[in-house]
Amino acid sequence: MPKKSSGKAQKYISKSPTETKKIASKIIEKMGMKGTVCLYGNLGAGKTTFTKGCADLFGIPEKSIKSPSFTYIREYETAHGKVYHCDFYRLAGKNIIEKTLRELQEKEKAFFIIEWPEKLQQLSSARIDITISGSGEDERVIEVVEHIENI
Ligand code: ADP
Ligand code: MG
User: Fold this and answer.
1) Atom 15 in ligand 1: which residue has the minimum CA distance?
2) Which atom, in ligand 1's list, is nearest to the CA of 43?
3) Which entry of 34, 37, 76, 128 is 20 to 30 Å from 23 by CA?
4) What pLDDT does residue 7 have?
5) How far apart are CA 2 and CA 61, in angstroms?
6) Nearest Cα to 85, choosing from 19, 62, 23?
């Protein structure tokens, strides 16, 4: 299916982890708290911090949002539906995990947030790409591009 970008790249500047979380929650609320978000950025850019902001919106305690491990997909049941937090940092090559993710995306009207989507062979055509740049205690630039499925 051909992919189409809405062409509207939005840019946010965040001066603190708290601000990144607030921006995250604002973006996800606008998305209707469902769909797929791909998070790009180096280690330490703020992808997990961004995810914690999404978690807040869903009423998930921040401390249950974890950084890279061998648990690639974490599922949270919330009053606003299911949330899947994926962290594919350690994923290598073609992997069965990708098939699991695709099946979940087809089956569930849930919210999916994916760190290290670069590790996947294929991305869903309807998604929001979010790129976080910056490091250390410096400010972050958060860029948002919406991809709409062209039916
Ligand atoms: P990633 O998941 O991309 O590897 P993390 O969210 O785990 O990154 O870590 C980001 C680190 O950067 C945290 O230690 C956080 O406190 C710090 N940080 C400093 N400023 C910001 C900011 N504006 N937004 C997000 N994180 C920030
Ligand atoms: Mg992370």
Assistant:
1) 17
2) 4
3) 76
4) 60
5) 38
6) 62
Residues 6+ apart with CB under 8 A from 135: 42, 44, 45
Q: pLDDT for 63-105, tens place per residue? A: 999 986 779 999 999 999 999 999 999 998 888 999 999 999 9
Contact 83, 55 (CB under 8 A): yes
* Cα gap 149→106, rounded to integer Å: 14
The CA–CA distances, whole Å, from 39 to 1, 3, 79, 134, 151 equal 22, 18, 24, 14, 24
Question: Which range (21-35, 40-54, 72-86, 91-105) has the least confidence?
Answer: 91-105
